[in-house]
Fold:
Amino acid sequence: MTEPGGSDSVSGNSFHGPTAFQAGDHNTQSIHHHTTHITPAATGAADPLDAVADELARVVGAQWQEEAGLRRLLEPTPLPVRWRVSERKVAGRVGGATAEGAARARFVPLPGLGPTTRGQLRDGGGLPELHAVYGGLASGRLLVVGPPAAGKTAAVVLLLLDALAHRAARIAPADRSRVPVPVLLSLDGWNPGEDTATDWAADRLTRAYTLFHGRGGRARARQLLEQGRISLFLDGLDEVTGRLRGAMVSALETAPFRLVLVSRAREAVLTAKKARLGGALAVEIQPVGAADAAGYLLNRLPSTPSPAWRELAGRLVAETGPLAAALAGPLAIALLRDVYGDDDPVDELLDTARFPTPSAVENHLLDHAVAAAYTRRPGHPRPRYSARTAERTLRYVAARLTREGTRDLRWWHIPGWTGHRPRLIAVWTVCTVVCGTPGVLMARSLDPSLLVVVLGALAAIGGGYEISRRVAELNVAQPLSSAGRRDIFTRRTILSGVGQWLLVGTMLDLLVPLLSDPAPPWWLWYLVTLPLGFSEVLVTGRGYEIVSGAPVLSLGSGRRYDKVRESYVRPSVVDTRSVGPLEVWRHHIGLRLFLGLLTGFALALYIGPILAWTRSPLLGAMFGLTAFVWTGATSCLAGNLAVATSLTAVQLHHEEGTPVRLVHFLEDARRRNLLRATGPVYQFRHARLQERLARDR
Structure:
């Protein structure tokens, strides 16, 4: 293993608590609930990091086992992965990667594996050989390249699962700490000019896995990286701009952990002209052989396939042509399997008049991919959406992303997809009626004159407009930022809030009797000052945005918030899981609504009891209700990206015919292998699918 390296400083990081589904465009995607005690005593490990690494391996394995299942990489029999050392000018000499001769190896072979030699690399191989290269490469730098739709990411996912299986079952437990845990991340969003590779990776791990939330979570992630106990599988190099690609490659040269870097071959060649990953070995994924493709397709069919399938398989092996060329890539093979059933006329693809080129075959399969995904299959539940609705929605989404020049579907950018005026009017109307009515009734009870009632109504209209205006501001793309309840209600913030509450309550209890006679009872002061303690908790923690704009409670909000706060006290029990887009959206909906309503209740409690004591219980109750609905609406709606996304989804349903529950539809499309997810971001399963769906919009 390498010596620990990198800076010990923490820069540009915001801590995210155990339920914080924050920010960052590329967290991991599946969610697996498991409650684990991360303590040396519980595991018998001498080093606390051993338990953390083992738990990370469990979560990563569950995550990518599920994802591989969704992508159908494991069943029936996987397509074989073939690779050879690339002859493209994307890396240095092979000897620099294997360190044969006098060169000094940067990484020793993993337990159970031998050093990688030139002889091993000469003939290439399959997945077992690729894992042997990954674990025995002296430089610890592996570059996986290939043309579009060659199956690079699929190969890397299977390599990751092989690496986890080797760590779990093929070596002695005493040697397990010397085998790094492979973690697959996307490179998009990293700026090497601001963060080192270790800083960026540690930050991404804290966002991706709740295992690294809590006290010292980021520090644990950083330790694992610096000690080489995590290996990074980095995808998406070809999807960032050319200048950033070169900077990333240069920054990764000094990373203290093993690397597997994935890129399309063309972009890898262009990047190598500016910067090369020192010591990297470049392997290229080979086209799928005709016999392998035919065998893979026939494995899912009955023992006696239909004549159409038999003819296709036979012609595929015996002849060359557009179909054979198209099925040299895993994408087309997977689409063919999805689109055509056991008794469908699959032999129509052999008609070279209809399908004269490989692109024509692939386009035909892409055109039917959505309908096939939403066709009911025996033994499976009925699709929640019709094929027509699904295709209309995905075409709209694809066209929108294509116009924006991106592959990333960030759900918090959806409010910018359509005009905000209908949402502004709807929120304005609802808030004016629902929130304004209690206030008008309260004003009328104080003074029944027409002027007071009119002023109350105008105030309601103005308040409703202000809330709707703040919701409409989210029409402009916003950064995704949030916090979990344990980031807000920490021991430090709670103690600060209790101290504020007791101090103000005691001062009022002592001073008011000196100035007023008769004075309210002592317990009333402690009751009405509870909201100040609650406000102090939000202001000193990460909840200051919740009270932003709330009268009295928002004073000083955010002034004392430390953006890099790693010393929060957390329980020793961690709910270990990985985080995906739907979970991020639900978090924003649930936590923000809960805290918004709690803020409204706090303001109602602040003045309502005093009015009830000094004037009348009815007046106090009416004021409390008015304060609750207005402050609750402001805190729940203004700045809540998830609510803005939901409102936009309703608007898009009427304008474009998309589902009302748009985020749930996107998750359903992911589970049907039309989309994939990296953290809170969705993408189409392949760029060609997005391009094809967007062509008619």
